[in-house]
Specification:
By secondary structure, this protein is α+β, with helices and mostly antiparallel strands. Among the domains are: 1-275, PAS domain (Beta-Lactamase); 450-569, Histidine kinase-like ATPase, C-terminal domain (Heat Shock Protein 90, 2-Layer Sandwich), CATH 3.30.565. The protein has helices at residues 3-7, 10-76, 78-89, 92-105, 114-121, 148-168, 205-208, 241-246, 279-323, 339-377, 382-398, 402-419, 427-445, 470-480, 513-523, 533-546, 575-583; strands spanning 128-135, 141-145, 173-176, 179-187, 194-202, 219-223, 229-232, 248-249, 253-258, 266-271, 424-426, 451-455, 463-465, 489-496, 499-506, 551-557, 561-569. The protein has a five-stranded antiparallel beta sheet, with helices on both faces. The two termini are 44 Å apart. Residues 1-7, 376-381 and 574-585 have low confidence and may be disordered. Residues 306-359 form the HAMP domain. The chain crosses the membrane at residues 15-37, 281-304. This is Two-component sensor histidine kinase.
Length: 585
């Protein structure tokens, strides 16, 4: 493939640029759409997990609230509070002995004791493993299990002494082995000094029971205010401050922190990316849609650019033909009125104008060369000819040949006008020449021909081609004149828009229909029987000077006369300027 054709591939470059731009735009758009719908999906899932986490925190908060409510019941019941004071200051044997003494002191009526109260208070709650009272000095401990099966492993692992040491350093809610412990201090109502602590051991499974099966892969964690893990259904990954701030851990999932409750607990949720259902499907769907749209867009633009590229190539081929000299080359004009159609129309008009211009210049040059050759061949001394004619005229006048003298005078005048080598004259000059020729022909045929002039005064100074009216008068004497009666000639000139119409009409014999068809064919340049050279020459000269829209028209009817119309452009310029402009068109 040639270098020039590669350089002409502007539509291919435009298609490539458009395709890359479309791909980038669609890709960017789909990226934001994917992010948007991904965020919507993630937000929906996080709302669901947040509800589960909040339910866990509420459940834990209710356990703490229940323990606080129990201590308030103790404060409200003075006998029960007195029993707690005895338990916190005596060992179990002394506590029992003191209770028996109180029983007898009140004559057998004793409202409630600590042991029965604690055993009965949490019987409704299956999550409670045991309730334990520990004195402030940790000397006395009272444990009331509600579920021996779950309490026994805890006690065997730590023992009473280690268990007290473990719980003494903890906050209000903490994790001990596999149990969740809630802690509440009991103060002496009179001195407000701590008597001891109530510990409620619970099974943290009540938090796991709140997790639906659909969310089992998600990590739900409950933390205390010291960020100690109280519960989690899966191992909680390490969470940095940056990840916690951004609420996202790359490669692990989405991190969510639930607001802290009154009891001090808060939740942390880690949602794996696999739990955000539909995200890969959405992304691949959007990717497929984007690729399809880009391919469709590229295909449409390819066919459009290919069609326009073909039309441009046709224009280029036409230019190449014109460059090689094929001035008659034409471009097809498309029905769509776009810029390329306008270029094709302008190209065709330019070709026609250029062809006409070259034809006009070429013809004028040939005519000029012929005229110069004829002038050189027939060049004689004008003064000698005019002086000789004047001598003959005077001799004829002396001999009494008045008609001959007048004919010689008119012939001399005609020769002087003919010898003047000027292409453009005024309309008045041409009319004057016609008058001289008409008088000469009247003397020749010994018959008067009335001549009527219908021209406004300013039009007589209008520039006009020389020797365009005389052939018309000559044809009149040859074909239209009546020999038995007088035949008149009428000359008129009028302006019509940007043109000037000059008419010569007679009331003579007229022309037959067959002859008129022959004349019209000769004027149109049709091949056939040639004739009426004078009319054809006038017509061609006018078109060569002024263009195809101007020229000669003839109408005639047998027995009614003939009318010849000459159309030339109207100008308000002087003759000299007009002649110069006419040759520079």
């Amino acid at each position: 493939m040639s270098t020039n054709k590669r350089k002409r591939r502007i539509f291919q470059r435009m298609l490539l640029i458009f395709s890359l731009t479309s791909l980038f735009t669609v890709g960017l758009l789909l990226f934001f759409i994917s992010r948007y719908y991904t965020n919507i999906k993630v937000d929906a899932v996080l709302q669901e997990t947040k509800a589960v986490s909040e339910a866990q925190l509420v459940a834990a908060d209710r356990k703490a609230t229940a323990l606080v409510a129990m201590t308030q019941e103790i404060y409200k019941n003075s006998d029960l509070m007195n029993d707690v004071q005895i338990a916190m200051t005596h060992d179990y044997a002394d506590y029992i002995r003191q209770n028996i003494d109180n029983y007898y002191a009140k004559q057998g009526f004793y409202s409630v004791d600590l042991q029965s109260f604690l055993r009965s208070y949490f019987t409704y709650d299956d999550d409670v493993i045991a309730v334990q009272l520990v004195s402030a000095d940790k000397e006395f401990t009272y444990t009331f299990p509600t579920n021996y099966g779950k309490w026994q492993p805890i006690f065997e692992k730590y023992g009473e002494k280690k268990l007290l040491q473990a719980v003494s350093r903890k906050n209000d809610i903490f994790r001990l082995n596999s149990s969740l412990v809630f802690k509440q201090v009991i103060n002496d109502p009179s001195t407000l000094q701590p008597l001891g602590t109530v510990l409620m051991y619970t099974d943290p499974k009540f938090l796991g029971n709140l997790i639906p099966k659909a969310k089992e892969a998600t990590t739900f964690a409950v933390m205390n205010d010291e960020k100690e893990r109280l519960y989690s259904n899966h191992k909680l990954p390490d969470i940095t401050a940056t990840n916690a701030k951004n609420a996202y851990r790359q490669g692990s999932g989405y991190l969510q922190t639930t607001e802290q409750q009154a009891s001090g607990v808060f939740g942390q949720v880690v949602v794996p990316e696999s739990q955000i259902g539909g995200i890969p499907v959405l992304q691949w769907t959007l990717f497929g849609v984007g690729v399809g749209l880009v391919l469709i867009s590229i295909a449409i633009n390819f066919f459009i650019s290919r069609r326009y590229s073909h039309r441009i190539q046709v224009i280029i081929d036409g230019m190449d033909q014109m460059e090689k000299g094929e001035l008659r080359a034409k471009l097809p004009v498309d029905e769509r009125e776009d810029e390329l159609t306008l270029i094709s129309q302008s190209f065709n008009k330019m070709g026609d104008s250029l062809n006409d211009y070259i034809k006009q210049v070429y013809t004028l040059e040939i005519e000029e060369q012929k005229a110069q050759l004829k002038a050189l061949q027939g060049q004689v001394e004008p003064h000698f000819l005019y002086n000789s004619l004047e001598a003959i005229r005077m001799h004829a006048r002396l001999e009494g040949a008045k008609v001959t003298s007048n004919m010689i005078y008119h012939l001399s005048t005609l020769l002087r006008y003919t010898a003047d080598n000027i292409e453009m004259v005024t309309l008045a000059d041409e009319v004057g020449y016609v008058r001289q020729y008409l008088q000469f022909m009247e003397l020749r045929y010994q018959q008067e021909v009335p001549f009527f002039l219908e021209v406004e005064e300013p039009l007589l100074e209008h520039p006009f081609l020389k020797f365009t009216l005389q052939p018309l008068v000559e044809n009149f004497f040859k074909y239209a004149r009546h020999e038995e009666k007088r035949t008149s000639l009428t000359f008129s000139a009028k302006r019509f828009g940007d043109g000037l119409e000059v008419k010569m009409r007679d009331d003579g014999l007229g022309i037959t229909d067959e002859k008129m068809r022959q004349i019209q064919g000769n004027l149109a340049g049709e091949k056939g029987e040639q004739g009426h050279i004078g009319l054809v020459n006038i017509h061609r000269r006018i078109q060569l000077y002024f263009g195809e829209r101007y020229g000669l028209e003839i109408t005639s009817a047998r027995g009614q006369g003939t009318e010849v119309t000459l159309r030339v452009p109207y100008t308000s310029e002087g003759r000299k300027n007009y002649v110069e402009n006419a040759f520079s068109r």
